[in-house]
Automatic annotation (TrEMBL):
It comes from the Bacteria. InterPro entries: Tscrpt_reg_HTH_GntR (IPR000524), WH-like_DNA-bd_sf (IPR036388), WH_DNA-bd_sf (IPR036390). Pfam families: GntR. Residues 14-82 form the HTH gntR-type domain. SUPFAM superfamilies: Winged helix' DNA-binding domain. The lineage of its organism: Bacteria, Bacillati, Actinomycetota, Actinomycetes, Pseudonocardiales. SMART domains: HTH_GNTR. One of its GO terms (molecular function) is DNA binding. Keywords: DNA-binding, Transcription, Transcription regulation. This is GntR family transcriptional regulator. The keyword Secreted does not apply.
Length: 124
């Protein structure tokens, strides 16, 4: 089983299950989790992150519904063969959550953070 490195930031404003889902999608999209890679069991990942098992179960259900993973009793939850595609919206949500967390840590307000993003895009 490959090591899945997921971090949940309780202050990000994004639901923990969504943070887990988005980070796993990003790992798959970047090739860090190849098709066929087994994800940690729900209880193990929940324990590692200090979350309820139901939170991880929801993330896994959402990933499965979107076609990123598949679950089989004998093998557990594995990255789906068809999961090589990227999901730009999921990748952006994960990046935005990280950005918001960093902005809050340095004391930036929402207006300033949005302004910085607009400037990065070249918008006034």
């Amino acid at each position: 089983m490959s090591t899945v490195r997921v971090v949940v930031d309780a202050s990000s404003g994004l639901a923990p299950w969504r943070q887990v889902q988005d980070q796993i999608i990003r790992l798959i999209s970047r090739g860090a989790l190849a098709p066929g890679t087994r994800l940690p069991p729900i209880r193990q990942l929940a324990g590692d992150l200090g979350l309820a098992s139901g939170t991880i179960a929801r993330a896994y259900r959402e990933l499965e519904a979107a076609g990123w993973v598949r679950t089989a009793r004998a093998r557990g939850t594995v990255v789906a063969e068809t999961a090589e595609r990227s999901d730009p919206a999921a990748l952006l949500r994960a990046a935005a959550a990280e950005f918001v967390s960093a902005a809050k840590e340095i004391g930036a307000d929402e207006e300033t953070a949005v302004s910085v993003v607009r400037k990065a895009y070249g918008s006034p």
